[in-house]
Structures are given as structure tokens and as C-alpha cells.
């Protein structure tokens, strides 16, 4: 804020306080503060001082291993050397910037691939779980339907057989009764004919 408003003295005070607090609480991350301080000096056209703080930020990055800030810092160092007319060193740091940019993009790509692989594996695992759950439901249901169908068909057949047997029994009984009735009728008819031949008076009674 103070650098943007060109209140450089106030900015110097706050930069010093930030470094003191970080050292007091053994906070190792100083690179961003050194970078902002270097930006302030670059804005004041104090390129040597800017480079001094940029390199202090670079040293701190090597200690902390925060690879994500290298790209921006190399770009600032390249611009600083370029402003001094040192194109060789400027190109050197521009190449470092491009190199670290490529490495970061590759790492991002690999990280993305890992995330996609994890998501794919997780999706496969979830699908397998759903598949097994469905199987646990469907298999017992299919078995139940098979058993129920077998039982129903068996009961139907047994009922049909009993019905057929019952009807056959009734038919047999009816045939026997009909046969008995025929025998009785034939016997009675024979008696009537015999009485008629003998002119027996009881003929009229039986005939009636």
C-alpha cells in the first residue's frame, strides 16, 4: 500500500517490522517481503538495491523450497538487469523463468493426472460397490421368484391332479350306479314279460 502511494519511508518501516516479527517467531518465509522491498526500490529506480533484495528473496526461496515463486522472481530479476542494459544476464534469468514455468506446468499436469486417476479409481470403486449392492438385492429376489414359481406350479399340478382324480371317481360311481340301474330295469322288465306271458293278475299292478 505504502509503496503504491509512494510513501517509501513508511514502507521501509513496515518491511523492517515484518522481517523482525518473522525472525522473532522463527517464521522462515521471508521471500515475499524481500520481493516487495525490491519492487519498491525498482519503482524508485534504485536497480542495484532492487536486485539486492530480489536475490535475498531468491536465497530464502532456496531455503523454503517454495517453487511457485521462482517464476515471478526470475522475471523481476530479468527486468532489473534489462533496465541496466545487461541483456545477457537478463536473458539468462528470462530462460530460468521459462524453465521453471515449464517445470511447474509439468507438475501441474502430473498433479491433474493424479487427481483424475484418483477420481476415476474412486468412481470405479463406487460403481463396484453399487454393482455388489444390486447383486445382493437381485440374486435373492430372482431365487425367491424361481422358488415361488416352482411351488406355485407344483401346487397347481397337484390341485389339477386331485380334481381329475375326483372327477374320475365321480364318473366311475355314476357308471356303477347306471350299470346297477340297468340291471334292475332289465330284471324288472323280465319279470313283467314273464307275468304277461302267464296272464298273472299282478302284471297290471307292476305295470302301473
Provide a descriptive summary of the structure in words:
With 208 residues, the chain is mainly α. 86% of the residues lie in helices and 0% in strands. It contains six helices and no strands.
Measured on Cα atoms, how large is the radius of gyration?
Answer: 56 Å
Number of helices: 6
Average pLDDT for all residues: 79
Strand-pairing-aware structural class:
mainly alpha
The biggest sheet amounts to: none
Backbone shape: rod-shaped
Along the chain, the helix and strand elements come as HHHHHH
Unreliable residue runs: 1-5
Strand tally is: 0
What share of residues is helical? over 70%
Strand-residue fraction?
A: under 5%
**What distance lies between the first and last C-alpha atoms, to the nearest angstrom?**
141 Å
Short description:
The protein is an all-alpha fold and 208 residues long. The chain is built from 6 helices and no strands.
Amino acid at each position: 500500500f505504502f509503496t503504491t502511494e509512494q510513501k517509501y519511508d513508511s514502507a521501509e518501516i513496515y518491511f523492517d517490522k515484518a522481517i523482525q516479527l518473522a525472525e522473532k517467531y522463527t517464521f522462515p518465509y521471508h521471500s515475499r517481503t524481500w520481493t516487495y522491498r525490491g519492487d519498491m526500490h525498482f519503482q524508485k529506480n534504485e536497480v542495484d538495491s532492487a536486485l539486492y533484495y530480489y536475490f535475498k528473496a531468491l536465497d530464502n526461496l532456496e531455503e523454503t523450497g517454495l517453487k511457485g515463486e521462482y517464476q515471478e522472481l526470475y522475471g523481476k530479476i530479468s527486468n532489473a538487469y534489462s533496465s541496466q542494459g545487461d541483456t545477457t544476464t537478463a536473458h539468462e534469468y528470462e530462460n530460468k523463468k521459462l524453465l521453471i514455468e515449464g517445470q511447474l506446468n509439468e507438475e501441474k499436469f502430473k498433479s491433474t493426472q493424479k487427481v483424475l486417476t484418483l477420481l476415476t479409481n474412486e468412481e470405479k470403486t463406487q460403481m463396484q460397490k453399487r454393482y455388489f449392492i444390486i447383486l445382493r438385492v437381485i440374486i435373492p429376489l430372482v431365487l425367491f421368484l424361481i422358488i415361488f414359481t416352482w411351488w406355485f406350479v407344483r401346487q397347481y399340478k397337484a390341485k389339477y391332479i386331485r380334481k381329475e382324480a375326483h372327477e374320475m371317481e365321480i364318473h366311475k360311481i355314476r357308471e356303477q350306479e347306471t350299470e346297477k340301474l340297468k340291471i334292475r330295469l332289465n330284471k324288472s322288465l323280465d319279470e313283467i314279460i314273464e307275468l304277461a306271458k302267464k296272464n298273472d293278475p299282478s302284471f297290471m299292478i307292476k305295470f302301473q
